[in-house]
Amino acid sequence: MKINFLWPAIFLFSFIGVTPPYKIGDKINNFTLYNAADDTRISLNDFVASRGVVLVFTSNDCPYAKLYEKRLLEIQNEYNAKEIKFLFINPNNPQTSPADNKTVMKKKAYPFPYLIDSSQEVANIFEASKTPEVFVLKNINGSFMLKYKGAIDDNPQAESDVSRFYLKDALNAIVSNGSIKVNDFRAIGCMIQR
User: Fold this and answer.
1) What CATH class does 27-191 carry?
2) pTM of the full structure
């Protein structure tokens, strides 16, 4: 008798409610995380009036995240007026106290939420593996759809040598209601510690 090992796994996934990781084109479920900047809780659905949302998985300690910080702030500033919102999400250092995170956030004074994913639930469902790594969500009739994931551009070390602007290209396509030519490009950065 041949035993099929696949159907018990399918049954287990459906029984315990585990959601498979998101792929390009998937509808994104709402999630809520703690905002280190002001002790509030922020949900994805809080931004349902925007054209799109950029999730940036990042870290306070990663050298690559530090190299991209200025670029991300400039991109956020450029696209905020075009109804694109940014959410930074830190899936690392769950042992860092809320007070420590708040101190760091006051010093940085980001103009957007800095969310703490201490359980790594959100990082896992997006299959985020690096910091920084971006996920671009487009608002389609009140629901967010995953449209791009991966690298911000093609040169983390030298901004002046960037020749491919993956994140900006995806955002321009969302703003113009066009198609995204590259919707998945491997991020370069620090591994998310699990």
Assistant:
1) alpha beta
2) 0.86
